[in-house]
Amino acid sequence: MNTKKTNYYSNLAALVYNESKPPGTSIDGDIEFYTNELIKRNGLVLEAGVGNGRMAIPLLRKGISIFALDNSSEMLEIYNRNLKKYNMQSDSMHADLKDFKVNIKFETIIMPNGSFCLIDRNDILNVLNNFKNHLEDNGKVYIDLIFPTSFKPGNVHEFDFLIDDDYVKIKNKSISMNWIEQKTYTELEYKKNTTTEIQHFSLWWYGVEEFKNILMNSGFKDIHIIENYNNIKNLNLKTLTFIFGK
Ligand SMILES: C[S@@+](CC[C@H](N)C(=O)[O-])C[C@H]1O[C@@H](n2cnc3c(N)ncnc32)[C@H](O)[C@@H]1O
Fold first, then answer.
1. What is the average pLDDT across 98-120?
2. Coiled coil where (predicted)?
């Protein structure tokens, strides 16, 4: 059995992510939103937590330059495979957001699809500070925050995917909602043949004023908030995109 640290995307978790959300899969219109925003801006974009390139590959195809960073070597391997498949190029880096160092200042840093909620609350100030250090003076950061509006402790959801001629069976167990620490805990079990992988999955959430204060105390300014990627047809609040500079 393969069990790594909280929120880590190991082999099966990364394969399933790629199978369920291949490059170009828009989540609630996020790819369209980011394409429209980034096409107006020049310069290099850091995608923090690039995953399989679900968002990065369509952005690259629109001529937007992406520098990809992820702490999962398994995800980056899939990203590099997808780059080849779509005949695209981007630099990538295997590193953790809380302490990565690269001698580049980015025009834009994006962290779509709630990836920021995967960061342990104790690490977010280091991550934000690191973003500030790697941002051009006139640069902008985009962070999506998601809210656990449909999380129900006790729910178990089972599904499977046929990947490379073998079924990967997934059991998604919603375990607990911690209102004090503002986090949900889900256990994901992936089984393929004799291999079992467990992903301990915690998502932290933040109040709007709370997150604004965190950003301001971290030295950021000009904070704007977009609801559900401007999609007015989506009546329930699911995603807030915080856009800010330094
Ligand atoms: C939910 S996936 C999103 C992938 C991609 N951005 C997308 O929109 O489809 C989150 C990604 O963030 C990466 N990640 C999570 N915590 C990280 C950290 N502390 N440092 C670097 N990458 C991280 C994970 O490995 C994973 O690939």
1. 97
2. none
Residue 164 DSSP code: T
Backbone angles phi, psi at 102, to 5 degrees: -145, 145
With a 6 A CB cut-off, is 239 part of the ligand 1 pocket? no
172 pLDDT tier (thresholds 50, 70, 90): very high
Ligand 1 in reach of 57 Cβ (< 6 A): no
DSSP E strand stretches across the chain: 2-3, 45-48, 66-70, 91-94, 106-111, 135-146, 156-163, 166-178, 183-192, 195-204, 221-227, 239-245
* Cα separation, 231 vs 222, whole angstroms: 22
Q: Whose CA is nearest to atom 11 of ligand 1?
A: 49
Query: Which pLDDT value is given to residue 236?
Result: 83
Q: What is the CATH number of domain 2-147+206-245?
A: 3.40.50.150
Determine if ligand 1 sits within 6 Å of the CB of residue 124. no
Residue 237: what pLDDT? 84
**Which of the four pLDDT bands, split at 50, 70 and 90, describes residue 5?**
confident
| Residue 240 Cβ < 6 Å to ligand 1 | no
Q: Reply yes or no on whether the pLDDT at 4 is more than 70.
A: no
Q: Which of 32, 70, 199, 201 to mutate to test the pocket of ligand 1 (most atoms within 8 A of CB)?
A: 70
Q: Which residues contact 199 (CB under 8 A, 6 or more apart)?
A: 4, 7, 8, 9, 10, 13, 187, 188, 189, 190
Return the pLDDT at 1: 54
**What's the pLDDT score for residue 2?**
52
Q: Which two tokens stand for residue 216?
A: 């301001």
